[in-house]
Amino acid sequence: MLMLLSLDFFPPLVDDPYLFGQIAAANSLSDIFAMGGTPKTALNIVGFPDDKLDLEILSRIMAGGAERVQAAGAVIAGGHTVRDTEIKYGLSVTGVATPDELMTNGDARPGDQLVLTKPLGTGFVTTAFKKNRCPERVLETAAASMAMLNLGACEAAKAVGASASTDITGFGLAGHAGEMAQSSDVTVVIDTTRLPVLPGAAELAAAGNHTRASKTNRSAMESLMRIEETADSGGLEMVFDAQTSGGLLISVDPDRSEELVSRCRESGAEHTAIVGEVSEKSDVSLVFTG
Fold it and tell me: pTM for the full model?
């Protein structure tokens, strides 16, 4: 049996404390799921301005986090809280996996297809929300996606014998796909016309609601990627957008890719889609096509 450890925390993305707790916890648990693991325990990590805000807010945050941990089949075993100038919340998660269950981002094989289990665009949505530019329904849909656990996608990936897996977070689809390509010594090809996108996110991107990470994520991959003339401009916006509690990017044998999509959708990840393929290593790690 292998022990898996992960840690993540960040400031609020939404106003509702309970929902923020759910999103932060789902994000923290995601690394364990990306590795094919089963979460067992979690420790709360909290920064909170208790000299300025009511402790009931903190109670609701931690209740949201506890709900997601319980839904993942794990338990909150304790944690640590410090006074801070702003709210921060997340988890240190311990999980387990057998050697046969373990998935890494370093075993993608040429010929595999790539499956993405959640829609992109959370960075554009949360940025617009902070600027009071985001329609309520768009935010609600994005928040529900961020709060959804990657548990079902993890189980589906193991069931079909996936080759490799990674979760899509701050480096965006481009950054995490690039890491998979480099770790696996292959080239990853992403079809920008097949990417699942959150409703309303494309419009918010077009209106200029970018995070700073959109620029830095693209700069980081510039020398490692090639953008074909057929690539969709809207899709390219999405691949560099920093995600919070994004989906899994799973490399799988093409004979089982459709089964993986079906299993993920049945588990609740209804936007799951085949978004690309793995090819033999070329002069770049990442290729964007249309």
Answer: 0.96
Pairing of strands 186-191, 286-289: parallel
The residue among 103, 38, 35, 30 whose CA lies nearest residue 73 is 38
| Alpha-carbon span 118 to 96, nearest angstrom | 24
Helix (H, G, I), strand (E, B) or coil at 3: strand
| Domains of the chain, each with CATH number or no CATH | 2-97 (3.30.1330.10), 113-289 (3.90.650.10)
| Cβ atoms of residues 106 and 63 within 8 Å | no
State whether the Cα torsion 17-6-145-189 is positive or negative: positive
Count, residues in the chain: 290
Over 90: is that where the pLDDT of 234 sits? yes
| CA angle, residues 128, 134, 140, in degrees to nearest 5 | 115
Question: Is 71 in a helix, a strand, or coil?
Answer: helix
Q: Is 78 exposed, middle or buried (0-12, 13-18, 19+ CB in 10 A)?
A: exposed
Is residue 199's pLDDT more than 90? yes
SS3 57: helix
Please report how many Cα atoms fall inside a 13 Å half-sphere around the Cα of residue 73, on the Cβ side.
11
Output the pLDDT for position 283. Answer: 96
pLDDT tens column, 272-281: 999 999 999 9
DSSP letter at 255 equals: G
Contact (Cβ atoms closer than 8 angstroms) between residue 252 and residue 134: no
Cα 269 off chain centre by = 12
Report how far apart, in Å, the C-alpha atoms of 179 and of each of 106, 154, 171 are.
8, 19, 10
